[in-house]
């Protein structure tokens, strides 16, 4: 079993805008840009002539660039993501901020060690746990890279819990092929380390339209 946390492209874009607006220094001008989701939805609906909740054929004319995965169809999420990104750039938002819409749209969290597949653009989140003072590492083998590492602190009843160590690793596939990640927990008290192995790969998607 695994859990998939899915964020639509336009939701990621809006989150990026909120972050940008709240983390801009006093020396940097704020763009004042805000994407109108309702207006975007209305445009998508107007283009969706056969009301199948996706754009294809002549419905895509002039906006083929919104077809992110190249399947000759534009989903609602792809349309809103592409539209918001273009409006951001037109409003003078930097390309760095605009490109945040291309960040992984899903974070896959496995709940066991069975092999699994992920979609293009997904990242995988793995967690290692030990007692306080443990050293936790992630050994990545295959076409994958570590994009984020974080120490997890737990709070209960307003107080920081002590006595444990939790680290989180976010790994993004960089190409086809099997990826193996070994999470190793080395305890400060000595003894054999605990190793947990995860295996996953990119899912192959047919380019033939259904």
Structure description:
The protein has a five-stranded mixed sheet with strand order 1-4-6-11-8, with no helix packed on it. The chain has a four-stranded mixed sheet with strand order 5-13-12-7, with no helix packed on it. A two-stranded antiparallel ribbon has the order 2-3. It has 210 residues and is an alpha+beta fold. α1 runs parallel beside α3 and α2 crosses α3. It is elongated. It has two domains: 96 residues, Recoverin, domain 1 (Orthogonal Bundle); 96 residues, Immunoglobulin-like, CATH 2.60.40. It is built from four helices and 13 strands.
Cα(first) to Cα(last) distance is 28 Å
- Rg, Cα atoms, Å: 21 Å
For this structure, the CATH topology of the largest domain is Recoverin, domain 1
Order of helices and strands: EHHEEHHEEEEEEEEEE
Number of domains: 2
What fraction, in percent, of the residue positions are helical? 10-25%
Mean pLDDT: 77
Architecture (CATH level 2) name of the largest domain: Orthogonal Bundle
Strand segment tally = 13
Shape: elongated
CATH class annotation of the largest domain:
Mainly Alpha
Strand order of the largest sheet: 1-4-6-11-8
**Helix and strand composition category:** alpha+beta
Name the features.
4 helices; 21% helix; Recoverin, domain 1; Immunoglobulin-like; 5-stranded mixed sheet
What's the short story on this structure?
The protein is built from 4 helices and 13 strands. By secondary structure, the chain is of the alpha+beta class.
List the helices and strands and how they pair.
Blueprint: E1 2-6, H1 9-22, H2 37-47, E2 54-56, E3 73-75, H3 76-90, H4 95-98, E4 106-110, E5 116-118, E6 123-131, E7 135-141, E8 144-151, E9 155-156, E10 159-160, E11 164-173, E12 179-186, E13 194-202
Parallel strand pairs: 4-6, 5-13
Antiparallel strand pairs: 1-4, 2-3, 6-11, 7-12, 8-11, 9-10, 12-13
Helix pairs in contact: 1-3, 2-3
């Amino acid at each position: 079993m695994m859990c998939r946390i899915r964020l639509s492209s336009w939701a990621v874009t809006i989150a990026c805008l909120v972050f940008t607006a709240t983390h801009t220094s006093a020396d940097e001008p704020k763009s004042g840009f805000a994407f109108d989701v309702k207006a975007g939805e209305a445009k998508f609906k107007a283009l969706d002539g056969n009301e199948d909740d996706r754009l294809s054929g002549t419905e895509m004319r002039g906006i083929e660039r919104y077809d992110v995965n190249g399947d000759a169809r534009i989903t609602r999420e792809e349309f809103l993501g592409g539209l918001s990104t273009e409006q951001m750039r037109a409003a003078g938002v930097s390309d760095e901020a605009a490109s945040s819409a291309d960040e992984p749209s899903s974070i896959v969290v496995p709940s066991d060690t069975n092999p699994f597949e992920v979609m293009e653009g997904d990242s995988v989140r793995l967690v290692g746990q030990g007692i306080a003072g443990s050293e936790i590492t992630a050994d990545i083998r295959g076409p994958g890279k570590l994009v984020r590492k974080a120490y997890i602190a737990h709070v209960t009843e307003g107080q920081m819990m002590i006595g444990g160590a939790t680290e989180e690793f976010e790994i993004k596939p960089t190409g086809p092929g099997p990826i193996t990640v070994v999470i190793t927990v080395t305890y400060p008290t000595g003894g054999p380390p605990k190793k947990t192995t995860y295996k996953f790969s990119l899912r192959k998607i047919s380019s033939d339209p259904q």
